[in-house]
Design a protein that fits this description.
429 residues, Rossmann fold, alpha/beta
């Protein structure tokens, strides 16, 4: 897709919103160099929209020396915040006025959908109420990989997070084998299971649970526990005392509220999202599994482990370094040439700006979440390799007898209790 615009000069402001992701500094690096090479001053705006909402531009002019080698570092030299200016017209006015007074004519917002929407609303307010056109571009980042980009296009930071998450999981798998215990790993991913599935697939975890598996149904806590207990029983029937389950934290978002009391009182961030990190989902799951196993006459060593914050500020992989430098350069060039209000993507080797209006509801700012396609070959192969109760086990009397022998249940009782997981009974929820 080729776009030609009238060249304009001015100041480029760069800010970062939302959670960290490997590769942020690569975008800042390349965008700054492209702008400086085109005669633009670059203002690095600290902590996202936080200070802009107070009417101040807190930051400094970026030079070649400031950004020369930062692309290999994790984190963000401009820091980040989840400050949300869209809730209050006064904040939109303060942001717009602060940028205009600082001479910023172009704004590059690095972040997820909330950051893109905030930039869009600030620019629209400046145009409609302050009489100044503020051009904006968005560099899409999130280790969750859930922004509505074309299916084959990852969000930057995802591949680095997958790599490090898989290596950490492989370490825990070896620990599980050595100590003969089970690990319940909770992986980041608020609304989609991309990261959990990628980690589970890459590490070869015993099984992985993602919200998409429920195909839009409300997730019941007891079904999650039954799936995990069923996997443990199957492993015991095969003579294996250990295992590793990767569970997407996004299960919480789609869970029946009454099934998890902590959801009722959970704190929310500035964009209204439940602060999932403050819900110790791993321990809740671990304790429930232990209780169910004890009811079956089984004592099992279980450990819960969260994987998330360890991934967000990791040094980017070579893939994400290359990817983010390309995104940063393309975003700055898009703005310099007069483009505006678009998310910058690279598709089939070409820069493709996707207009904000095509990605989001202009009033709510919500975008369609890109979820895991559970009908894809990738998910199918991953599921086939998981050790868990499946439909083909329903008529395997030998397996069911071996599983029952590990418990205080008869084969008939065990099948009655877990048969719905194998398609042999109606779901009890």
């Amino acid at each position: 897709m080729s776009m030609i615009y009238e060249s304009k000069h001015g100041k480029l402001g760069i800010l970062v919103g939302g959670g960290p992701a490997p590769g942020i500094n690569g975008v800042i690096h390349a965008a700054t160099i492209e702008a400086l090479n085109n005669g633009m001053e670059v203002i690095g705006i600290r902590e996202g929209f936080k200070h802009l909402m107070a009417g101040k531009v807190v930051g400094h002019s970026l030079t070649f020396e400031d950004v020369t080698r930062i692309y290999s570092r994790g984190g963000s030299i401009l820091y980040t915040s989840r400050a949300n200016p869209t809730r209050d017209e006064a904040h939109l006015r303060q942001c717009g006025r602060a940028l205009i007074d600082a001479g910023v004519s172009c704004l590059l917002a690095i972040g997820g959908d909330d950051t893109a929407y905030s930039a869009y609303r600030v620019a629209r307010y400046a145009d409609e109420n302050l009489g100044v056109r503020l051009r904006t571009a968005h560099a899409p980042k999130t280790i969750d990989n859930d922004l509505p980009l074309p299916y084959e296009i990852p969000t930057f930071g995802f591949e680095t997070a997958r790599d490090l998450g898989a290596r950490l999981t492989l370490n825990l798998m070896e620990d599980a084998l050595t100590t003969q215990r089970w690990y319940i790993i909770v992986a980041m991913g608020r609304k989609a299971g991309h990261l959990a599935l990628a980690i589970g697939r890459s590490a070869g975890a015993t099984l992985t649970l993602i919200p998409e598996e429920w195909r839009g149904r409300k997730i019941r806590m007891q079904e999650v526990i039954d799936v995990l207990v069923g996997a443990i029983l199957r492993r015991l029937a095969e003579g294996r005392q250990h295992g590793v389950a990767v569970v997407a934290e996004g299960l919480i978002e789609q869970m029946e509220v009454g099934d998890l009391d902590q959801l009722k009182h959970a704190e929310r961030d500035e964009h209204g999202h439940v602060r999932l990190a403050e819900i110790n989902f791993g321990d809740v799951v671990k304790d429930a599994i232990r209780e169910d196993l004890r009811s079956l006459g089984i004592e099992k060593r279980l450990v819960s482990q969260n994987i998330g914050y360890e991934l967000r500020c990791a040094d980017p992989s070579p893939y994400d370094i290359d990817y983010t430098r390309s995104i940063g350069q393309a975003a700055a060039e898009f703005l310099i040439n007069g483009g505006s209000h678009a998310t910058i993507t690279i598709q089939h080797g070409r820069v493709v700006p996707i207009p904000f209006e095509e990605m989001m509801d202009p009033e709510t700012g919500r975008t369609e979440v890109r979820i895991v396609d559970v009908d894809s070959a990738q998910y199918y192969s991953a599921y086939k390799l998981m050790v868990r109760l499946k439909e083909e086990n329903a008529d395997d009397d030998i397996l069911i007898s071996r599983m029952a022998a590990q418990t205080n249940l008869s084969p008939e009782q065990l099948k009655a209790r877990y048969g719905y997981l194998m398609g042999a009974a109606e779901r009890p929820f």
